[in-house]
Amino acid sequence: MNRLTLTQLRKLKTQGEKITCLTVYDASFAALLDQAGIEILLVGDSLGMVIQGHETTLPVTVEHMIYHCQQVYRGSRNALLIVDMPFMSYATPDLALHSAARLLQEGQAQVVKLEGGNWLVETVRLLTERGIPVCAHLGLTPQSIHRLGGYRVQGRTESEANNLRHDALALQSAGAALLVLECVPGNLAAEITQSLDIPVIGIGAGSACDAQVLVLYDMLGITPGKRPSFSKDFLPETGSIITAIEAFIKAVKTGLFPGPEHTF
Ligand code: KIV
Ligand code: NA
């Protein structure tokens, strides 16, 4: 297997080289992204919105994630493959172990991603001990949209920021291999990134994170409706899908994306 490993990713963090990640849901885009040199492919449950047309990610099932993960796996050879665990597929540690095993065995993912803080410590430890690497996800966690009450920046108050700092360290201690920070103020994301040994992947979290991820359809300007303010459509200035992807990679590697206009 020639895919990028978590060890290699951690080395990139140590060396201070920025890491690129995009979401992807099918073999053709996976091949394009992989050949362009994207380090991480994320089969995100955002597919519930951008592929399936739902209003939230909640209707997505483990079967859906396996189906799309298989496609992305077949289309790519080099990138690290992360798959989202869908809503309620990790509600208990045992359920999480069962769902995650399917995503690795049937979907061929290397890493599973799950959304949430302190309550997931036991689950992250269990999966990690059983040989399943976990990417944690803090800040705006779209599977909790009904509890959060809207797609808003998280960690603005001091008590919210303290919870985020604490959860990030607790998840790393439990064995998390990676952390996604979504929609948190840039200075808080910078502080958390520095406090952790594991690579931090930001989306709407400023330029200090070790890696950047965007929803593929946002960065190609084909998501229906309004594009999130932290995202950028790379297509108009480049003119083709492949050059847009190359422009994203270059902008992340040189620290030009995200700029202040994409940061909270
Ligand atoms: O589902 C998704 O696309 C994600 C990323 C935006 C981090 O979780
Ligand atoms: Na997701």
From TrEMBL:
Subcellular location: Cytoplasm
EC numbers on record: 2.1.2.11
Catalytic class of the enzyme: transferase
GO biological process: methylation; pantothenate biosynthetic process
Binding site for Mg(2+): 45, 84, 115
GO molecular function, one term: methyltransferase activity
Pathway(s) where this gene product acts: Cofactor biosynthesis; (R)-pantothenate biosynthesis; (R)-pantoate from 3-methyl-2-oxobutanoate: step 1/2
Binding site for 3-methyl-2-oxobutanoate: 45-46, 84, 113
InterPro entries reported in the protein's UniProt record: Pantoate_hydroxy_MeTrfase, Pyrv/PenolPyrv_kinase-like_dom, Pyrv_kinase-like_dom_sf
Residues at the active site: 182
Coiled coil, from the record: none
Keyword GTP-binding: no
Keywords of this entry: Cytoplasm, Magnesium, Metal-binding, Methyltransferase, Pantothenate biosynthesis, Transferase
Stretch forming the signal peptide: none
Keyword match RNA-binding: no
Catalysed conversion reaction: (6R)-5,10-methylene-5,6,7,8-tetrahydrofolate + 3-methyl-2-oxobutanoate + H2O = 2-dehydropantoate + (6S)-5,6,7,8-tetrahydrofolate
Family statement drawn from the similarity comment of this UniProt entry: Belongs to the PanB family.
HAMAP family to which the protein is assigned, alphabetical: PanB
Name by which UniProt lists this protein: 3-methyl-2-oxobutanoate hydroxymethyltransferase
Annotated organism of origin: Thioploca ingrica
